[in-house]
Design a protein that fits this description.
about 550 residues, alpha/beta, ABC transporter transmembrane region fold, 2 domains, 5-stranded parallel beta sheet, about 10% strand, elongated
């Protein structure tokens, strides 16, 4: 299982990344052993006058000091690499979501957020760091034990048997309990994220229904057990430390007493065993504590690995000939289902390079699914959606699409942040944005480029539905798209705003293709083509 987990870790990160970490673990452990060997050498030289030499002694001391400097550098870079894993894994999960979109949401957005923030943190602190410590302590323990076995075989074998019996006994006693609380931690953390997310989205409803106390009680049930299980795991990890140290010291003391009674000279062995104990006891404890943490961190590791292993490919990007053809998209869908539930069937229509194409249908008729298929966020197995030859691939197609979602997707940040949306558009300056906003009818809130620094709350609190829509429209149009998609554009508008929107759309459709997804039958009057969806068909 250990090798399988190493292989899995190698799969979800860069293979060279793991090699670099392993190499630095080996170097750091070797330097630990080297420092002890140098200390042995100093003791051996000082207790043996025939070997005593200032030059030799100074050389060993210099080597010891140099090893400290090198060890500090290696440990610093090792820790940098280990803790950079939280960035590597979090970014990979986010990148995977941006690539696959809805196909990753089977477990919900809160589960995804939990993986990105909390579970990745747990993987680093309770899996990767312990794994690193486990490997380091193993190398130190094995190296020192081989040396002691050569020098003092009987003492070494005795101590090894005591250590092995105690640690194996503790492992067997706590194994089932550790696995159970590890699974509980994963569950409670996921539920805690989900509950907080629900509270942030529904706090008004919670207040209206007087559900404050029950919500807090539910949070307590998850959060308290989570905290308790983390504490219990820490206790299990450090429990053997004091008991085993005491037993080892008692055992060594008894051995020495017996040896002194026999008249043996034990000074050198006492010093050697004392120095070895300084390294061995913490290394044994680190080994056990790290192994216990690995058990506790495994569920989080598997959760992140499952998320990163999702590999639902997009449908193939197809072109149509475009010869004597004014269509920018051709859609032919034999059928599309979610599991055993049919959603779309026998859908055939084309979208022209200019003009307004409206997809009309009631809730549940498959409008949103059709939109996801056009944009490539769902995989179509039975049918084809082909694009004009001017788009070389899916990314180029999407870069030429302007999209106005139903909820407008306004983020917390400045007005400029909401319009640029993390994009870098060459040749676009702030004056262009101000001019477009004014053209869209937002001159009341934007007079000049300084107004672009106005801060908006998440969701655009304080703005009207029409203002939110126009900001989203500006975001869609600022990149000069060839296709503009509007999802339920009239749902939050009054009649006057709706009329102005229709006039604007007709003007835009003179130069680009406008696709409207709506249930409002009033869009028919200004559309060039109307596709009416019924349940599973046109």
């Amino acid at each position: 299982m250990f090798l399988d987990n190493i292989k899995k870790f190698n799969e979800i990160t860069d293979g060279k990344y793991l090699i670099r970490i392993m190499f630095k673990i080996f170097v750091a452990s070797s330097l630990d052993v080297l420092s002890l060997v140098l200390a042995y050498s100093v003791i051996n030289i000082t207790t043996n006058n025939s070997m005593l030499s200032d030059s030799v002694l100074y050389s060993i001391i210099i080597l010891l000091l140099l090893s400290i400097v090198v060890r500090f550098y290696v440990l610093r870079t090792l820790n940098d690499h280990i803790h950079a894993t939280r960035h590597v894994l979090s970014r990979k999960i986010l990148e995977k979501f941006l690539l696959l979109g809805p196909s990753m949401l089977n477990a919900g957005l809160t589960s995804l957020a939990s993986d990105i923030f909390s579970e990745v943190e747990q993987v680093v602190n309770s899996y990767i760091v312990p794994l690193s410590n486990l490997l380091q302590s193993s190398i130190v323990c094995i190296s020192i034990s081989i040396g002691l076995l050569y020098l003092y075989p009987s003492v070494t074998i005795g101590l090894f048997c005591i250590f092995s019996f105690l640690y194996i006994s503790l492992f067997l006693l706590t194994n089932k309990y550790s696995k159970r609380i590890a699974k509980e931690r994963l569950y409670d953390n996921d539920r805690r994220f989900s509950l907080v997310s629900n509270v942030l989205n529904t706090y008004k409803t919670i207040a209206v229904y007087g559900a404050k106390e029950s919500t807090l009680n539910k949070f307590d049930s998850y959060s308290k057990r989570l905290a308790k299980n983390i504490g219990r795991n820490q206790t299990i990890g450090v429990f053997p430390k004091y008991a085993i140290e005491s037993l080892v010291y008692i055992g060594v003391a008894l051995y020495l007493v017996v040896s002194f009674e026999k008249g043996a000279d034990q000074l050198e062995m006492i010093i050697v065993l004392g120095l070895s104990a300084i390294k061995l006891l913490p290394s044994f404890q680190t080994f056990y504590h790290s192994f216990n943490h690995l058990r506790f961190g495994l569920p989080a590791f598997y959760s992140v690995a499952r998320t990163l292993s999702k590999n639902e490919g997009h449908r193939k990007f197809c072109h149509h000939s475009g010869e004597a053809d004014n269509d920018i998209i051709k859609i032919h869908i034999d059928n599309f289902s979610y599991g055993d539930t049919p959603v779309l069937q026998d859908i055939n229509f084309n979208i022209a390079q200019k003009g307004v194409t409206s997809v009309l249908g009631e809730s549940g008729s498959g409008k949103s699914t059709l939109l996801s298929l056009i944009l490539g966020f769902e995989t179509l197995n039975n049918g084809t959606i082909s694009y004009s030859n001017e788009f070389l691939d899916r990314d180029e197609f999407l870069s030429n699409v302007g999209y106005v979602p139903q909820d407008y997707d306004l983020i917390e940040g400045t007005l400029l942040d909401n319009i640029m949306f993390n994009r870098e558009l060459i040749g676009i300056n702030n004056e262009d944005i101000v001019s477009l906003l004014k053209m869209l009818g937002l001159e009341k809130i934007v007079q000049n480029h300084k107004d672009l620094e106005r801060t908006l709350d998440l969701g655009g609190e304080g703005l009207s539905g029409g203002q939110k829509q126009r900001i989203s429209m500006c975001r869609a149009l600022i990149g000069h798209p060839k296709i503009l998609i509007l999802d339920e554009p009239t749902s939050a508008l009054d009649k006057d705003s709706e009329k102005k929107l229709f006039e604007l759309i007709r003007k835009l459709a003179e130069n680009i293709s406008v696709i409207i997804i709506s249930h409002n039958p009033e869009i028919i009057s200004f559309s060039d083509k109307v596709i009416k969806l019924k349940k599973t068909s046109v």
